[in-house]
């Protein structure tokens, strides 16, 4: 139960992070966001490890643990976050969210193959819903644009039509690349923390590894130049984003330290709801709130709930016919 609570808190913080990063990327760049957020992550995990006394147990981390956690840091904090910020700039948080749920498919596939976790009919239904959500959004958006072209009038996207013009192809590519980083990192974290219960040290190692990689990136003159051009307003919103994502990762590592990937990772999809709520208050003029976008988000959310439900819970609280109970109890492999 505690793992579920941590997972929900991680999703809420991640939703706040996405809304803040969306606001920042309007005037900033992805590399600026990474440079601000990574030191914050190191600081927060350092304080956490000190508070619970994990530093004395650092020797429990083998070279394999450190390697897996370092790979998690690169895939999530460097690769995933970089492309996530780019996707927010291209299509906004609401449109990017459903595509990024492909991270669930990758995480669950890797967890089944390498961690011995299982799939159930509920999880299969969840997968189908998650895959269908971005396809639904794209189809409805194409219909809307075709109708507008026939009527020979400019595209309408609600109250924010004049302010926000999403770049769908570029944004969805970035969102998919971000999902590869986010989805694979969960499995690396789970494997890296296996048998240690050192969530704070695990997060510290991941952040340090990702920060070291960013240090090398800043030797590239064009990237360093972008960081030097950071202005006060952009820095403020990236700072908010950094705090949100750092606490999100804090709760995520705590959750993955005590609960399976197939439970924790689907709970991250609750961030779809939180990012839409925070986005409404922070970025109303820079997001798409069309009806089909909201429907697509809810399809993805229902899929995530389906992925999160245990067959045992369904069988315990619902009186299903024998044939349906047998199907609900199926597992693979």
Share in β-strands = under 5%
**Gross geometry:** flat
Broad structural category: mainly alpha
Low-confidence stretches: 155-162
Overview in brief:
77% of the residues lie in helices and 0% in strands. It has 14 helices and no strands.
Please specify the SSE layout and strand pairing.
Blueprint: H1 2-25, H2 30-51, H3 63-100, H4 102-114, H5 121-150, H6 168-193, H7 199-217, H8 221-228, H9 232-258, H10 261-267, H11 271-282, H12 291-308, H13 311-317, H14 322-328
Q: Can you describe this structure?
A:
- 77% of the residues lie in helices and 0% in strands.
- It is mainly α.
- It has one domain (2-119, 165-288).
- The longest helix has 38 residues, at 63-100.
- The radius of gyration is 20 Å and the shape is flat.
Which key terms come to mind for this protein?
333 residues; mainly alpha; 0% strand; flat
């Amino acid at each position: 139960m505690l793992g579920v609570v941590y997972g929900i808190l991680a999703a809420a913080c991640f939703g706040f992070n996405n809304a803040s990063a969306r606001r920042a990327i309007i005037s900033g760049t992805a590399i600026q966001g990474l440079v601000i957020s990574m030191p914050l992550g190191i600081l927060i995990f350092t304080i956490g490890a000190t508070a619970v006394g994990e530093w004395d147990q650092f020797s429990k981390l083998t070279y394999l643990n450190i390697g897996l956690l370092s790979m998690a840091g690169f895939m999530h904090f460097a690769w995933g976050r970089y492309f996530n910020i780019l996707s927010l700039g291209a299509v906004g948080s609401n449109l990017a969210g459903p595509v990024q749920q492909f991270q669930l498919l990758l995480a669950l596939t890797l967890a089944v193959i390498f961690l011995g976790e299982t799939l159930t009919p509920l999880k299969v239904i969840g997968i189908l819903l998650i895959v269908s959500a971005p396809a639904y959004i794209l189809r409805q958006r194409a219909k809307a644009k075709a109708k507008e072209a026939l009527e020979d009038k400019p595209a309408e996207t609600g109250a924010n039509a004049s302010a926000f013009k999403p770049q769908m192809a570029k944004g969805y590519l970035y969102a998919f690349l971000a999902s590869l980083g986010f989805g694979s990192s969960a499995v690396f974290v789970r494997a890296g923390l296996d048998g240690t219960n050192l969530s704070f040290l695990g997060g510290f190692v991941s952040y340090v590894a990702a920060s070291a990689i960013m240090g090398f990136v800043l030797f590239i003159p064009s990237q360093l130049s972008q960081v030097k051009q950071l202005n006060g307003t952009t820095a403020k919103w990236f700072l908010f984003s950094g705090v949100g994502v750092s606490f999100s990762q804090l709760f995520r590592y705590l959750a993955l330290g005590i609960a399976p990937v197939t439970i924790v990772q689907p709970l991250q999809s609750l961030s779809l709801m939180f990012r839409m709520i925070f986005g409404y208050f922070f970025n109303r003029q820079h997001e798409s709130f069309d009806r089909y976008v909201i429907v697509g988000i809810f399809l993805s959310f229902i899929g995530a709930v389906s992925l999160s439900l245990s067959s045992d819970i369904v069988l315990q609280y619902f009186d299903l016919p024998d044939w349906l109970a047998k199907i609900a109890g199926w597992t693979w492999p």
